[in-house]
């Protein structure tokens, strides 16, 4: 019990000394009185700027054509599978057991190939989109950098994807239209 009392009294003494030291120390000045340089910044919608580019429409048209080609091939493969499946259903009662197994494995193989093709087509379309939009993205970045240098911004923010839920327009400037104009 004596040890507990001793520990508590030492702890209270230490706290009392710390509190007195903090009262006599000079407090930090409030944030408003600190002379910090004012930063200018810009913000814009990256997507809106990209979509305003004439190259964007060309890229989208090219991607649409490529997507149509893959869709046509998937439809052809699906029709081929459906025909083989219908043939299988029509003749399954008359097939010998070994032929039945062979046809079932052929259908299973077609299903797996079709699924693999669909996944590959999706991956190839994503890659094609990435490659088609890369030069446009570079142009948008370059346009934003030029505007930022000309106007003396410390940084430029992208408004897309809810990455910037609040912007004080008195401290920053919306440069979406300026970026669009720079792309033309």
What are the SSEs and their pairings?
Layout: H1 2-24, E1 41-44, H2 46-52, H3 54-91, H4 97-151, E2 155-158, E3 172-174, H5 176-183
Parallel strand pairs: 1-2, 1-3
Helix pairs in contact: 2-5, 3-4, 4-5
Structural summary, described in words:
With 184 residues, the protein is mainly α. It has one domain (35-183): 2-Layer Sandwich (Protein Binding, DinI Protein, Chain A), CATH 3.30.910.20. Helices cover 71% and strands 6% of the residues. It has five helices and three strands; from the N terminus they run H-E-H-H-H-E-E-H. The protein has a three-stranded parallel β-sheet with strand order 2-1-3. Helix 2 packs parallel to helix 5 (176-183), helix 3 runs antiparallel to helix 4 and helix 4 crosses helix 5 (176-183). The longest helix is centred in the C-terminal third of the chain and has 55 residues, at 97-151. It is rod-shaped. It starts with a helix and ends with a helix. 8% of the residues are buried. Mean pLDDT is 83; it is low at 18-23. Residues 1-21 form the signal peptide. Keywords: Coiled coil, Signal.
List keywords for this structure.
Skp_dom_sf, 184 residues, signal, coiled coil, three-stranded parallel beta sheet, mainly alpha, rod-shaped, Chaperone_Skp, Protein Binding, DinI Protein, Chain A
- H/I helix tally: 5
Q: What is the domain total for the residues?
A: 1
Q: Report the oligomer.
A: single chain
Shape, per Cα inertia axes: rod-shaped
Determine the CATH topology. Protein Binding, DinI Protein, Chain A
Rg, Cα atoms, Å = 34 Å
Protein name: OmpH family outer membrane protein
Keywords: Coiled coil, Signal
Family: Belongs to the Skp family.
Signal peptide: 1-21
């Amino acid at each position: 019990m004596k040890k507990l009392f001793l520990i508590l009294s030492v702890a209270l003494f230490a706290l009392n000394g710390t509190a007195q030291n903090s009262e006599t120390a000079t407090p930090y000045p409030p944030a408003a009185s600190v002379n910090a340089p004012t930063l200018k910044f810009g913000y814009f919608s990256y997507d809106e700027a990209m979509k305003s580019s004439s190259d964007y429409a060309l890229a989208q048209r090219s991607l649409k054509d490529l997507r149509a080609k893959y869709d046509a091939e998937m439809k052809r493969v699906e029709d081929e599978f459906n025909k083989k499946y219908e043939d299988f259903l029509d003749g399954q009662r008359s097939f010998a057991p070994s032929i039945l197994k062979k046809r079932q494995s052929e259908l299973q193989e077609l299903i797996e190939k079709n699924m693999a093709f669909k996944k590959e087509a999706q991956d190839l379309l994503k890659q094609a989109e990435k490659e088609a939009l890369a030069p446009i993205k570079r142009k948008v970045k370059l346009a934003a950098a030029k505007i930022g240098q000309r106007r003396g911004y410390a940084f430029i923010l992208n408004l897309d994807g809810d990455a910037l839920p609040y912007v004080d327009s008195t401290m920053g400037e919306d440069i979406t239209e300026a970026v669009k104009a720079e792309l033309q």
